[in-house]
Amino acid sequence: MVTKNEAPAGWLMTGETPSDYETGLDNTVVHSGNYAAYLRSKDEKARGFATLMQQIKSDRYRGERIQLSAFVKSMDVNGSAGLWMRIDHSSGEVLAFDNMMNRPIKGTNQWNHYSVVLDVPVKSDVISFGILLNGHGHIWMDELRFEMVDESVPVTQQDPAEGLSDEPVNLNFEGND
User: Fold this and answer.
1) Residue 83: CA count within 13 A, CB half-sphere
2) Are 90 and 46 in contact, with CB atoms under 8 Å apart?
3) Is 94 helix (H, G, I), strand (E, B) or coil?
């Protein structure tokens, strides 16, 4: 039995183009227990991305290192997929972020364990987390854990400067470098 277009209790499906995707619970494809949540594109023309997510207050996690982990299975992911977590200030400022785009889930894979780890700044207010699917494909997630971890677990936060040049280039549009 698969439930379609009904986010599991406590979860929300949103994103850039959620109408191109569907979510629900699946009791035929599971890692353990009775159900796994899934997110999949409705067809091969899926645009943008969708996410199955939650938001919580950061109060009890301020000053801590937290890890979101899950077992994820993928089928025919032609864009990318991954767990994600974002720590925000009440002003909307993003304080920490990782969406696994520097280590995306692609293609068809059996159940694998993934995690994202972030430090929660004292000035934070909201923690958002979930799984995202960008483009065509089908993903399942099961056995999620959201927990405080110690300093021995490295953060996976993406560096916003990664891949950027040190200096401006071709400012007069005359060169090909």
Assistant:
1) 25
2) no
3) strand
Cβ distance 82 to 131 under 8 Å? yes
Contacts of 33 (CB under 8 A, 6+ apart): 142, 143
Which residue in 9, 20, 3, 6 sits closest to 132, CA to CA? 20
> SS3 for 106?
strand
Token pair of 151 as six digits: 């300093």
pTM, to two decimals: 0.87
Question: Can you spell out the DSSP letters for 28-83?
Answer: SS-SSSS-EEEEEESSTT--SEEEEEEEEE-GGGTTSEEEEEEEEEEEEEEEEEEE
pLDDT, tens digit (0-9, with 9 covering 90-100), for 146-175? 999 999 999 998 766 556 677 777 777 776
29 contacts 39 by C-beta, under 8 angstroms: no
pLDDT single digits (tens) 67-121: 999 999 999 999 999 999 999 999 989 999 999 999 999 999 999 999 999 999 9
